[in-house]
Amino acid sequence: MRTSTLASIALSAATASASLTSITVKGNAFFAGSDRFYIRGVDYQPGGSSDVADPIADESGCTRDIVEFKKLGINTVRVYTVDNTANHDACMNALADAGIYLVLDVNTPKYSLNRADPNPSYNAVYLQSLFATVDSFANYTNTLAFFSGNEVINDPASSAAAPYVKAVTRDLRQYIREQGFRSIPVGYSAADVSENRLEMAEYMNCGTDDERSDFFAFNDYSWCDPSSFTTSGWDQKVKNFTGYGIPLFLSEYGCNTNTRTFEEVQALYNTEMTSVYSGGLVYEYSQEASDYGLVEINGDSVTELADFTALESQFSNTSNPTGDGGYNSTGGASGCPAYSSPNWLVANDSLPAIPDGAVKYMTEGAGTGPGLTGDGSQNAGGASTGTATAGSGSATATASGSSSTSTSKSGATAMNAPEWSLAPMICGAVVVMSTFFGATLL
Ligand SMILES: *[C@@H]1O[C@H](CO)[C@@H](O)[C@H](O)[C@H]1NC(C)=O
Ligand SMILES: *[C@@H]1O[C@H](CO)[C@@H](O)[C@H](O)[C@H]1NC(C)=O
Ligand SMILES: *[C@@H]1O[C@H](CO)[C@@H](O)[C@H](O)[C@H]1NC(C)=O
Ligand SMILES: *[C@@H]1O[C@H](CO)[C@@H](O)[C@H](O)[C@H]1NC(C)=O
Ligand SMILES: *[C@@H]1O[C@H](CO)[C@@H](O)[C@H](O)[C@H]1NC(C)=O
């Protein structure tokens, strides 16, 4: 363990417009220009969820942590909550200077879907907050992607909320297009629910191009050291996701049941996985109550824990495959999974229409967001009242050039044998929590 203490440095004065090559999607992979791009990252939310705060509006905090990010050799951080009224220039530019991209959750605890009763929570007040967050980050070249939701579906029963997750994804993509922003990829971060993992992935990538996602990600804690590609079951997941037509990555990984050696890094960036996966994000940078941290933060000082050293050495020992890693350049849509009780409770392929009150944001822009101190959106009224006409958003999927008529080979096979139960999370789930709650249950 080493300790480094840093004085905070005025970053904003240093640079006004750092820039990285923006990430694009081609087939089932990410690209930086003509080079395949693999996410090598960590999840970054110091303070955890009980202290709802924006880590990339905190200049001294991000300055302190970027030093550690560089040491780890990462190229991406995921942030779960931001304040859409704050200025992010200093941290975003400092991240860009360090070669680091951002994957951002656009929901916040108070502005999110309610998985137990999604219709009222899918309203104009909610979407305005999401769109305002997009406005705040769209200009940064190192905004890699937006997560439209995080673990909204966390068991078989909550699959009934999937049409709302997909509608939010559609609306974010349409907003980005209509505002003339760069084609920033939008996708969903799924809980690793074995009963409907594959259905959710296929569902988010089925139908017309305006309703599909640009990528899919899921959280995976199944590799617990000592393990291997086969013992962990990662080999089976590669097999099951082969032919999936958009980029796939792990939005959280790093089981902490035993001593973490992070040997899964060697598998994740090996050609045994890179034809299907585009890397992942280790949960998580800072030590919180759930005990997944790589470092302990104390004011301006950071103490590297043993997990930090283990991960640092795995990253430095593991290079990306040469060439394109065997990605699938064709890409394309999946078939929509059929209704199958009790694991997949989506009756048909139609989506709720955007709430009437949110339509104007498409042309007028979202305006000022509510930040982290707003009243919250779940009971704000003005819910969706109709069903959307598929294709009405007339998107050209940024996911691929191919049309929605192609179907993937990976059929929507029902999953059986639950590996674990997330039942505690259903009870009184009023707010869709970010994962720093959920991970403690894994
Ligand atoms: C993004 O860039 C556009 C065009 O230059 C500008 O009008 C807009 O204000 C910028 N947004 C932010 C949040 O800086
Ligand atoms: C892969 O799919 C098969 C069915 O085709 C299923 O039985 C199995 O549980 C899946 N494995 C994983 C790890 O998703
Ligand atoms: C590539 O993706 C397409 C569309 O999803 C699929 O039909 C095809 O089987 C995939 N090819 C391979 C080798 O996985
Ligand atoms: C480094 O990676 C190689 C394979 O990429 C592996 O065989 C070796 O054991 C790794 N070394 C360490 C110290 O983990
Ligand atoms: C699809 O299912 C939803 C929810 O069950 C229902 O409200 C809607 O009417 C259905 N649409 C069609 C076209 O069957």
From TrEMBL:
Keywords: Glycoprotein, GPI-anchor, Lipoprotein, Membrane, Signal, Transferase. Splits internally a 1,3-beta-glucan molecule and transfers the newly generated reducing end (the donor) to the non-reducing end of another 1,3-beta-glucan molecule (the acceptor) forming a 1,3-beta linkage, resulting in the elongation of 1,3-beta-glucan chains in the cell wall. Involved in cell wall morphogenesis. It is a lipid-anchor; GPI-anchor. GO terms for biological process: fungal-type cell wall (1->3)-beta-D-glucan biosynthetic process; fungal-type cell wall organization. Residues 1-18 form the signal peptide. It comes from the Eukaryota. Its EC number is 2.4.1.-. It is found in: Cell membrane. It is an enzyme of class 2 (transferase). This is 1,3-beta-glucanosyltransferase.
